[in-house]
Here is the input.
Amino acid sequence: MELELRHLRVLCAIADAGSVGRAASDLGYSQPAVSTQLRRIEGHFDEPLFERGPSGVRPTPYGVEVVAQARDVLARAAAIGRRRAAGSASARVALRVAATNSPMLAGMVSGVRARLPDVSLSVSSVYASSRIVELLEDGALDAAIAADYPGRELAHPEGIGHRGIVTEPNFVALPSRHPLARRAQISLAELAEEAWFLTPDDGAGWPGVFYMACAAAGFTPTTVHEFLGDRQQLQGMIADGLGVAVVQATTRPIPQVVIKPLAGTPLWCRYVLAWRRDTVTEQTADALHQCATAAYRQLAAQSPHLKAWAARTWSVSKA
Here is the structure.
C-alpha cells in the first residue's frame, strides 16, 4: 500500500479521539471503514501503531513517533501554495499561550501546529489561574488554560472569552504499600491522619475547596506540606511514605504509587480555555478548544484509574 495524506489523517484522528469509533465519527466515515484502513496502515508499517483496550486505543511507543511525524507532514502539506501577504512575516499569527498545572498543554500545542500551520505559539507556565486572568487583561497573553472549581468559576471581563474544556474529579495519590492501596475508592475521612502535600493558593479557590471538603468529612488536616514542583519528585516523596496528595485524575503514577478515586467525589476541578477576543479569532479559539479537548481525551484514555472510575460511576448512574 502506498501511504497517502488521508492515511495520515486517519492516524491523527484516532490518536486525538482515543477511539476508532469516535475517530470515524469525526472523519465522517463508518467505524468498519476506519478499522479496515487502520489495519492496512499498520500492515504498511509492519508493526502495531495502537494498543487496543476495552475503553479505546492509545498509540504504542512506535505509534507515538509515527503520529508525530504524520502531524508534521500534514501541517507542511496544508501550507503548500499558501501565499503570504506583503512583508510575509506579518502573515504569520503569533499567539502567546500559557497554562496552569495542566498536562493538556503539550497535546493542545501539537494539535494546533497540525491544524493551524500559520499560527505560531509561544508557551509559558503560570500556576495561579487568577494571575492568568490578569495577564490576559493586561495584554501579556492571548490565550490560556486556567483552572477553577464548580461554584467558584473565575470571573472574566467582557473582552475575555472563555469555554470549559472538562470538569474532572480529583483523585488521591498514596504509596502502593499503604493499607488502603487495594481499595477501589477511599473516603476522605479515612485519610484524616495522613500528612498532605498541597499546592499553593491558585487564586481560584484552591486549597480552600480542599479544606472545606475535609471539614465536611469531619476533620482538619494536622500536617500539610506546601509543594509546587516536579510531579515526579512529588510522587517520589509519596512513594517514600512521606504523605499523600490530591492529584489530577489523569496523573500517571510511578510504580510505587497508586491513584485512587475519593468516595462520593468531594473534589472537582474545571479546566477552561480563556482568550482575548481582540487578538484571537473565534475560529482560532474553536481550534484551540478542539485541540485541548482532544488532548484531554487522549490523557483520559491512558489513565486506567480514571476509566475504571468512569465505568463504575456511569453504571451506577444508569441503574
